[in-house]
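Supplementary Methods, section 5.1.

A reviewer requested that the exact input to the structure prediction be made available. We therefore reproduce it here, unchanged from the version used in the analyses.
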Amino acid sequence: MTWWVVVEEQRTSERIWSLSERFSHPDRETAEAEALRLAREYEPAYPWSPKSRTVLRGPGGYLVIVEGRTSTYHFRLNVLEEL
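The structure derived from this sequence is encoded token-by-token as follows.
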């Protein structure tokens, strides 16, 4: 069984959502730990000058809101099981 941490974010200034990263792990616990680390440390494409971040945990992952100097963006991290 393989577990994935998938990062979805707005990768263009037009705010189009896309899959930007994915990481596979042998077990759920490792994937959960990596998702939390990424929620705290991942550097999204936008905003360019991050000032603060808010991490929200929900079923299966995280929503991270990043405040920049002139705009706010967010990205999602999901922990998913490969079937």
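The first strand starts at residue 3 and ends at 10. These observations are discussed further in the main text.
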